[in-house]
Amino acid sequence: MLQQLRDIVERVARATSLPQALDTLVASTCHAMKAEVCSVYIADEETQSYRLIATKGLKKSRRNVSLKFGEGLVGYVGQRAEPINVAEATRHKHYKHLRGIGEEPFHSFLGTPIIHRRKVMGVLVVQQREQRLFDESEESFLVTLAAQLAIALAHARAQGVWLKSNETLTIDAVASSPGVAVATGYWDDDQPRLENVLPMSTLDVDLELERLLVAMEKAKTEFRRLRKRFDSDLKNDTLAIFDLFSHLLNDPMLRRDLEAKIRNRAQAEWAVRQVVESYSARFAQMSDSYLRERAQDLRELGQRLLYYLSNDSQPEFDWPEMRVLFTRELTAAILAAIPRDKLAGVVSMEGASNSHAAILLRAMGVPAIMGAEYEPKSVHGKQVVVDGYGGRVLVEPSEPVLDEYRQLMQEEVELYDKVEQELNKPCVTADGLTVQVNLNAGLSADTSISVNQGVDGVGLYRTEVPFLLQRSFPSEDEQYHLYRDVLHAYQNKQVVMRTLDVGGDKPLPYLSIEEDNPFLGWRGIRFTLDHPDIFLIQLRAMLRASIGLDNLDILLPMISGIVELEEALALVNQAYTEVAKQAVEMSQVLHRPRIGVMVEVPSLLYQLDHLKGRVDFLSIGTNDLTQYLLAVDRNNVRVASLYDALHPSVISALDLILAKAKALHLPVCVCGELAGDPLGALLLVGMGYDSLSMNNRNVARIKYILRQANAAELAAIADECRSAISPHVIRDALTKYIESHQLGGFIRAGKE
Q1: pLDDT (tens digit, 9 = 90+) per residue, 200-258?
Q2: What angle do CA 185, 188, 193 make, to 5 degrees?
Q3: C-beta of residue 471 within 8 angstroms of C-beta of residue 510
Q4: Which of 427, 669, 671, 721 is catalytic?
Q5: pTM over 0.70
Q6: Residue 247 annotated in active site
């Protein structure tokens, strides 16, 4: 029956509309299974019922035929979310007779749920006159077919294909920039795409090399112009995006590889596609979501080169009014072409929440969602609502819904102004608990005055980015100057620098690493211990940079055991001895920095007692800790819903770490995404944490929220959460608290 299954799927895929596809499906299924009836029922959340939308063998009724959730055999299938196979349907306790569709003669019944990402979207049913149970092969066939149908129906729902006349099209995707927008939708798909470039050779190598050179110069000019345009509006950490593009365009390795492809007779466009896809693939294999999404930035660079290979100037968006931009893939160049006062929001088919485009949008305060699936004609020219909190778009919603969102927009403006005005106030709870709020930095040195404001220090500085962007390992002097700039920018504030965290999951362009499972492979401290020369160079650069400033802390990543730690500490001591000696010779004094470990590998939880006397502080990376504890890759869409930093197991681990840290008299800071989340920050403070580190965009709002909170009340809520068995219970308790303090605007419309 496998071939029959393939034939059905192919015929359904060739259908030009959903009704035609479903009619083809039910007819083909009847033929393949020799069944007399095949029907498709679709879940209608609004009416809480299953609607019959396609059938072969039953009478087509003029009225809507439906069964309430849990009603009849169809409802029973949906309720149990598993196949139901009965020989005599009328004798089953859940049977319900539907008048007027002629199902009386059919005795045997086999129904299976149509499930997409754990949600029952409908029920697929076959029936026969003969009283018999369908055999295992038939049941397996129908289950497999339902799984295929689920994908098609999910796609159709996203496209708004089967909506009822009074139903609003809702597009769900990834919330990438918070906020709310209400405006007319505008679809733009004029940008070139790498995947559309086909293999093509050339006879004139010199001409293609010249075309490439001109395109690269135009792109460099454009990125300089973009940086200048945004200079007065954005902070240095965001402007560094354009520096990254310029750096890549000046990279001799990239230019050499492009030229090599052309000299091998490839047309310039084809050379760009091959090289850019090769480079971006390296980043795409990294487990760190921030660095993995740099792969998209490399593709954006490639697409700008494609654009300038065939165009002389940048297109302009001449909009008479505020618009929501719908695009296949958002780039910094597109953003720069749109007047800021005309861009209400952005909805992109591709991209992720940590892409450079998303970073720019957050810095600009433009609400956006990414990874959306929609039909362009269903949104272009329509009034839409972009919910950047919940990650959804509403197309032509009702007037009451529009009024509600317009009110939210007004509240947004007032809330933002209030939070920013209080940025420099100390973070002290209503009952007097001081919480240290630090910055996670990494894309740039984050040395602008505006970034320094409002933070107590740098809780995590990622040192690997310069390594990933160089054509070879940066020298000790190169690293020294970079670290010195960072430490100098935060004089009188501690800066925690994490040692090189590259390896199997973050391969360097100049060091090939191939592993079956890089997430659990040669990375972090494992890599640097295997390359003590590289490790010592970095340590010496850090220590030299700290002389006279004395605000350096060194953090060791991916420590899984005490043996690793001791090996790393031996190298730290060696570097310290060497630099201290040099300092004395130059009449300087090197103060020994504090040394800490990143608690992110679960095995370390059971060796915390052995850290006493070996390290000076702990930092908790909740992102990897959660991923490893739950065995969930949060970037895998099939299981991403299982990734939840508020999972009871994660909370228990955080409790254990804090208790051990207090017993060992070790300061501890949480520097994962949980610390920058309003609910997460409240829970952490309630659990007893008093040091949090987060991205710059979260600093002002987290400080504001904590100033309104009462630490004693948060401690009581944390006690409740410790006994929870579900992250939903924990989230509900925290949400109730934040709403009771009129802070619901910070989490409103949050998507489950």
Answers
A1: 888 899 999 999 988 888 888 877 776 666 655 555 555 566 666 777 777 788 888 89
A2: 145
A3: yes
A4: 671
A5: no
A6: no
